[in-house]
């Protein structure tokens, strides 16, 4: 497993990270034992970056990660935690809270659930419009001074917010969606992050399964799977997007790879400062994703991929309107 550094000030991590959200929330039922086994398989393969959120399953995801890390050397793992998302008992989204007092409160509960004395990268999940980013970052900086957090991260913020945050404290990385179907960061966000020495951890590299190469147009989604409201999965849009996947499949076959491996490798090929996060929930899917690490895409490959899935080719926004409103990165 290759390693890289998150930005100019962040920790050293594996060239591929594992996102744990789907193991506890938002993608329908998951097998907890298989989820833990998948985390173990990732660690054994050299994956060191594990990403969770305190609101994934209302704390259940952090507890799962605690159990998966039991008996492992904590210093061998970089744990990234998102906070700020407010949920109701029914799972409803109630907004975001990143006030300094809330930051410290959320951190206290995460430390207890994770069974650890520190969080490696701590980040607000979204920009709270009621709280200046300077105040939120300042609170995380105080947690760093106290030894509870190692690095500041951000998630789904735009170029202006990046600049304001970096003026308060060095930012290790920006977690943001980036894939062949979601390339909005290329215009302003990515250049700004590079100017400021901020790394990028890219989530949604398989566009929530669309780019996996395994999605069937007649697939029925389980109860609680948020993709049911996703614009790209709606009738009309879905067929268009799957046609793009079939075009990409031709490129994959020429390289002796799967569609998912090419999609992940494409993200990684956009720069050494970008670390793809894969949301594998099973060991089989993890094994496939890990195959992307050894896949080198040359200039001809990248040109063929661009022709198969050009920028802006996706049909539908990456989130439903209610979620889109909270994306500072899209403003």
What does this structure look like?
This protein is an alpha/beta fold and 331 residues long. It has a single domain, classed as TIM Barrel (Alpha-Beta Barrel), CATH 3.20.20.100. The protein has 11 helices and 12 strands. Strands 3-4-5-8-9-10-11-12 form an 8-stranded parallel β-barrel, surrounded by 6 helices. A two-stranded antiparallel ribbon has the order 1-2. Helix 5 links the parallel strand 9 and strand 10. Helix 5 packs parallel to helix 6 and helix 7 packs antiparallel against helix 10. The model has no long low-confidence stretch (mean pLDDT 95).
What's a concise summary of this model?
The protein has 331 residues and is of the alpha/beta class. Helix content is 35%, strand content 17%.
What's the arrangement of strands in the largest beta sheet? 3-4-5-8-9-10-11-12
- Identify the CATH class: Alpha Beta
For the record, the CATH architecture stands as: Alpha-Beta Barrel
**Superfamily (CATH H level) name:** NADP-dependent oxidoreductase domain
Give the tags.
331 residues; alpha/beta; 8-stranded parallel β-barrel; 35% helix; 17% strand; Aldo-Keto_reductase; NADP_OxRdtase_dom; oxidoreductase activity; NAD(P)_OxRdtase_dom_sf; oxidoreductase
Helices, strands, pairings?
Layout: E1 3-5, E2 12-14, E3 17-19, H1 32-44, E4 49-53, H2 60-69, E5 78-83, E6 85-87, E7 93-96, H3 100-114, E8 119-124, H4 133-145, E9 149-155, H5 159-166, E10 171-177, H6 189-196, E11 199-203, H7 237-254, H8 259-268, E12 274-278, H9 283-290, H10 299-308, H11 321-324
Parallel strand pairs: 3-4, 3-12, 4-5, 5-8, 8-9, 9-10, 10-11, 11-12
Antiparallel strand pairs: 1-2, 6-7
Helix pairs in contact: 1-2, 3-4, 5-6, 7-8, 7-10
GO molecular function, one term: oxidoreductase activity
Keywords: Oxidoreductase
InterPro entries: Aldo-Keto_reductase, NAD(P)_OxRdtase_dom_sf, NADP_OxRdtase_dom
